[in-house]
Amino acid sequence: MTVLSTHGLVARYGDFQALYGVDIDVAEGEAVALIGANGAGKSTFLRSIMGLMAVKPEMVRLDGQPIGGTPTDRMVQKGVAIVPEGRRLFTGMSVDDNLRVAMDQADRLGRTGGWSLERLHRLFPILKEKARTEVQNLSGGQQQMVSIGRALLSQPRVLLCDEISLGLAPKVIREIYAALPEIRAQGTAIIVVEQDVGLAQSASDRIFCLLEGRVTLTGASSAITREQIAGAYFGGSHAVV
Question: Does the pLDDT value for residue 167 go beyond 90?
Fold first, then answer.
């Protein structure tokens, strides 16, 4: 069943149009990867879903209901969370304090679900070990785990991940991506923006490629070839497989 979808999604920064009629959907428990070069519109797509861009209501739908332009806090209340590029943690606060902010917000918004601090510690054991450490003193990979954990503790039905591998060591990237199947097992749908094409393919069910704000390729991750991706990524024919 489709949980989240976009329909002719258009987004602008002033006079600059960043997205041109983007149609993307994700089902319950499915992982969709969004790939494309820098400036292709990937982060803008996530921002448009989260109410950070001015878009028409019918351009973004949750369970078939138009929600485009809904403020970010209400999107979280509806069950859509984002792991933002750059992590955006609360410096000067410990790991636990950052996580408890999300838990308190979920309580205020009436969000319930399967994610608890204890379960998160099982997913990322280092977060229990570093519970009292201020987040600015963590490694980049550990900070990313806090950012993912904070999003999960909001009890999302849809998790948006923006460049979660950026700047991290390969070992840490593998550890973070190894957590995605358990997140999906909760029934959570995932849209992940990823620069590493191989990683995007291995971590997702379907891939969408963006070029200059348009979808140039979509298909099952296991079926799309590198040649097709290269053509879509750099401006070849608009392929659909």
Answer: no
